[in-house]
Amino acid sequence: MLAAISTMGEMSFSQVKKECGGEGWVPLLIYRLDHEGETFTVLPIFSTEDVCRKWCKRNLPKEWGLSGGVFLTDEDIPTIEEKGWRVQMFEWPNKVKDFVTFDVEPIELSDKPEVLGKRK
User: Fold this and answer.
1) Counting runs of H as helices and runs of E as strands, what totals does the chain give?
2) Which of 9, 19, 68, 76 could bridge 72 with an S-S bond, Cβ 3.0-4.6 Å?
3) Which of 31-45, 55-69, 73-87, 96-110 has the highest mean pLDDT?
4) Burial of residue 5 (number of CB atoms within 10 Å: 0-12, 13-18, 19+)
5) pTM of the entire predicted model
6) Residue numbers of the domain that contains 75
7) Rg (CA), the chain
8) So what's the pLDDT on residue 120?
9) Helix, strand, or coil (residue 63)
10) End-to-end CA distance of the chain, in Å?
11) Count of Cβ atoms closer than 10 Å to residue 22 Cβ
12) pLDDT, mean of residues 39-60
């Protein structure tokens, strides 16, 4: 599974790669969706790196700057489930920004993750 990461413009690519990946945590991109009086927290995951990149470009505020991705393993699933998050797979770069509120949630992963991203 490939999940998006973002620092909301607070860190450079090299800082993310060194600090987050090196220390076993990542700033996962999540969104909140209100539906029928309930708020759901959703972790978007992506079929390919290209879909992740295009989805982030289409949906995230430009001032957030850096975005990227991280591959999650089967060992990371219990951590996600404990948080009560829903997971939504995107196979194309759907536009969702008009219906959701984005946030970043730091999360520890079971292994030191490979952080993928772009330099500004």
Assistant:
1) 4, 7
2) 76
3) 31-45
4) buried
5) 0.86
6) 2-117
7) 13
8) 44
9) helix
10) 25
11) 12
12) 94
